[in-house]
Amino acid sequence: QVQLVESGGGLVQPGGSLRLSCAASGSIWRLNVMGWYRQAPGKQREWVTLITRSGSTNYADSVKDRFTISRDNGKNTVTLQMNSLKPEDTAVYYCYADWENRPYWGQGTQVTVSS
What we know:
Helices cover 0% and strands 53% of the residues. By secondary structure, the protein is an all-beta fold.
């Protein structure tokens, strides 16, 4: 099993920044793909970004050039740096990982962008 715990969410003003962290229960060397989804109230879950074991990344168009995902395989963590935040970024952000061809999810962390 893979246990993932997100942290770093909170309230931030538009244009501000937040850094989310995802800590895994064990080595993430075994996890090729990790990343983030988000879900805003009344909306479907939306894929945000992913990173592979080797560091290859992809981003949704909505966050491209504003968000940066990184991965530390030694510390077993994945980080999402979010800059130039917009109100539409408000959502619960979930860390995910693929393990044995099944998705694993963290508990989520709330990000609220508001004045």
